[in-house]
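Hey, quick one: can you model this chain's 3D structure?
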Amino acid sequence: MSHSRWKSLRERKLAEGFREPDDVVEARREIRLSMALARAVYERRTELGLTQTQLAERAGLTQAKVSRIEGSDTVPTLPLLARLAGALDASLNIALDDDSTEVVFTAHGTDAA
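Sure thing. Here's the predicted structure for all 113 residues.
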């Protein structure tokens, strides 16, 4: 079954009153958050023209850890997020709502890599 057929089947079931189990809903939420963070880190890093290795050095991490964050393979702790924000010369803003997640790094000033 193709992804588009699967998606429409899921949407159809939800429209008919089907309710996904709470653990599935929570897993989807966690995946959305992880992906939003990954995208924000990647976008800010590339905006600064940094490689993963350079960002890792700035944040006191390994390149593999940066890769896992950008690949949505891990959700970092708050102290690690603070180190990332500092290394990216930005403030980290996270907005969490029931159906949406927004993760944005806001530059502090001039973008000097």
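One thing worth noting: The longest helix spans residues 22-47.
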